[in-house]
Amino acid sequence: MKGAAYKATHFQWEFEAGIGAITLNRPERKNPLTFDSYAELRDLFRQFNDAPDVKAIVITGAGDNFCSGGDVHDIIGPLVEMSAPELLRFTRMTGDLVKAMRGCPQPIVAAIDGVCAGAGAILAMASDLRYGTSQAKVAFLFNRVGLAGCDMGACAILPRIIGQGRAAELLFTGRGLGGEEAERWGFFNKLCSREGLLETARITARRLADGPNFANAMTKNQLNMEWDMSLDAAIEAEAQAQSICMQTEDFRRAYEAFVKKQKPVFEGN
Description:
alpha/beta; 2-enoyl-CoA Hydratase, Chain A, domain 1; six-stranded mixed beta sheet; three-stranded mixed beta sheet; 9 strands; 48% helix; globular
């Protein structure tokens, strides 16, 4: 896959100078997800494994909201009428989107304003870095519609971001987490103004895209793999990962640039 060649159907896709930008663009409905957009997002993130020209990804929502979750009319209504096997196929498909986001080698930067609810909160959670605004409101609201909080990996990932007790509170109650509280809790890496939110996310993506991409992919892989490793296993895995990175040309480029008192130019190999 080539980043510039991809044509999105159910969201907006832009690609420039190594950075891909996904914009959920149904602002009149606060950017909800549909069966089709879930599937297309899953497939796109899977394709990033074979897209070396895509170095970093920004995901955001059009207008003043990130994502309101599953569309009430296009998803929730039909789910009520589905059989058990059909429902399981759907929940596995949505979980596969999170797997694809965590499994792609590129760092994902989420820019979050306004409503960030349900599956929208999951998209933010599954990203690697999250920037928000004081107007943002994050809500894992599954409990409020009669569902368990354990949706799309929330019980595995959210406690690792904000801690077990805080995650339990959000998943048991479905209450909204305001922007300033989300930053204090560590869900947001940084709080930005509405005007500066997307630019901050893009600057970070640019910095990541200009970095050692192979090494960044290795870091993301280890962050995922070490969740269920013992300390000894994790240290051994990191020793092997680092020794592989030391064989790259980027490692040599960084050394030679340091000797010459120059800024290294990484090429991802």
